[in-house]
Amino acid sequence: MPVAPPIPARPPLADVTALLAYQGPAAALVAGLKVRHNRAAQRWLAEGLALLVPAGTSLITWAPTSRARVAARGVDHARLLAEAVGRACGIRCHGTLLRQPGPPQTGRSRAERLADGPRFAARYDLSSHAVVIIDDVTTTGATLAAAGRAAVAAGARTVAGLAAAATPPPASPTGPPGRLGP
Asked: Which residues form the domain of 141?
């Protein structure tokens, strides 16, 4: 399986880490979770993500998908993944964020995602918590950063993002595809 590239953390996230690069067999594995509700894929991804949860984490949550996506798919895959990660590492998992209405991220350009990303609001006071926010795939980091802003606004002490997979960065004019320039 292709390993995820390093991911720059967008404020207010202290760190963003992904388990796999979203290409080839890893993309098929994540698609198996999202499209075919493959529980074996969910379990495997959750066990891998649990190994990446930062020490000192006190709460795991997820970047909720839109109501339209939940209605179409019947489930929020980030939620299922976050709950499985919480079970795997013995850390409380709770739905602390609400997704506000806005455009879907799927199919949008990098610039569009960064300029008008999703919006979240916290449902609870997160004071004193070191929070990890789980997402299935990160492309630009806009979703995890927006979820992180909501968690910090609710008092989270620190916030990190974890994704099952990360889309490799675009080709650099000074290097081969998948590599950031100098």
From this structure: 15-104+116-166
